[in-house]
Design goal:
It is a single chain. The chain has 123 residues and is mainly α. Helices cover 85% and strands 0% of the residues. It is built from six helices and no strands. The chain has helices at 2-38, 44-63, 67-76, 79-91, 96-108, 110-121. It is extended.
Amino acid sequence: MADTKKSVRSWVLYNFGNSASATTIVAAVLPVFYYDVAAKGVQSLLAASYWGYSQSAAVLIVALPAPFPGAVSNYTASKKRFFMFFVLKKGSGPLAPIWRLFGAARSRGWEAALSQSSSLNRM
């Protein structure tokens, strides 16, 4: 019984954290970015419709192929591996700018990478 409580508690905490992250990004950060950067110079009604269209397209891009990895993980009995892959994939997103900096440093030297990073921050 204790193992069941632990697994339920773990799932609740994961779901709470994941939902809070997704809600904050989708409801608070992305619309502001979209209106201020991506739809700059576009009428507000047209920008709002573009925002809706892009969100609908994103949902379709995720929802249509989603059953296939689920079926593969069920058939091959590798649910934990699939779960960890997608958790790490989502968690590595914020690290992309850091990896970009290290890639530039490796190819052009640290001075060039840091100057590129500082010029991006001024934009």
